[in-house]
Amino acid sequence: MNKSILLAGFTALLLLSGCGKEQDYLVVGTNAAFPPFEYVGGVSGDQVMGFDIDLARKVAEDAGKTLKVENMKFDSLIVALNAGKIDMIASGMTITPERQASVDFSEPYYEATQVVLVNKQDDSIHSLADLTGKHFAVQLGSTADMMAKKYTQSVTAFNTGFEAIMELKNGKVDLVLFDSEPAANYLAKNPELKLISLDFPPEFYGFAVAKSQPELLASINKTLATMKQNGEYDALLAKHMK
Ligand code: ARG
């Protein structure tokens, strides 16, 4: 066979398989250190699972695609989305005006708030005012990270909330500022800590897509609305929230 025909054939094949890939997968980015929304576990111990992942699987299914999860640093998610490396962020991400400048969010799917974790013997925090000047540990690029700066100059940021909690347990910081559900989840495994609820404003989690993907956004919102209506959303809440 003529070489150029062969080459053309290969190119066509490559193109075809390339197209197929894009259409078959919904690539979802997350930072799987945020139980019960996303964490690593399962039989193999390296499976990404959780509330967000179950919701994302349904979104993919409704869009006729297979879910593919990419686990990455939290502060890389928006960059990866806008670089086209992932199609959607499902990562307990709070809808904020700053983020809305660079990505589009779905309708909110969960209401949360920040809470404070301290070592059990610490009795110095009873109100937001008591946070002034404390040494905070937070997750890098999180809403806690942004909020901490209102109270103090001493903020140490980590790639995961888990590392922030280790720092607290080692007595290197005064407190961890973290989202309510994951904080309660970590607390259950760390009885030497305690959780303090203060008057922090509510935060709403949304799935994020690139601004160039209005159809995907509409499809996510449709899935969420259907799941809220038919009880699947509540069933997932019951499965994941203790
Ligand atoms: N809700 C917070 C935020 O949007 C923290 C989210 C952290 N999520 C995660 N999967 N680690 O900044």
UniProtKB/TrEMBL annotation:
Domain Ionotropic glutamate receptor C-terminal: 25-239
Name of the molecule in the record: Extracellular solute-binding protein, family 3
Major localisation: other
Cellular compartment(s): Cell envelope
Sequence similarity: Belongs to the bacterial solute-binding protein 3 family.
GO cellular component labels: cell envelope; membrane
Residues of the Solute-binding protein family 3/N-terminal domain: 25-242
Signal peptide boundaries: none
Record key words, sorted: Signal
CDD domains, alphabetized: PBP2_Arg_Lys_His (cd13624)
GO molecular function: ligand-gated monoatomic ion channel activity
Superkingdom, taxonomy of origin: Bacteria
Transmembrane portions of the chain: none
Alphabetical list of Pfam families matching this protein: SBP_bac_3 (PF00497)
Coiled coil: none
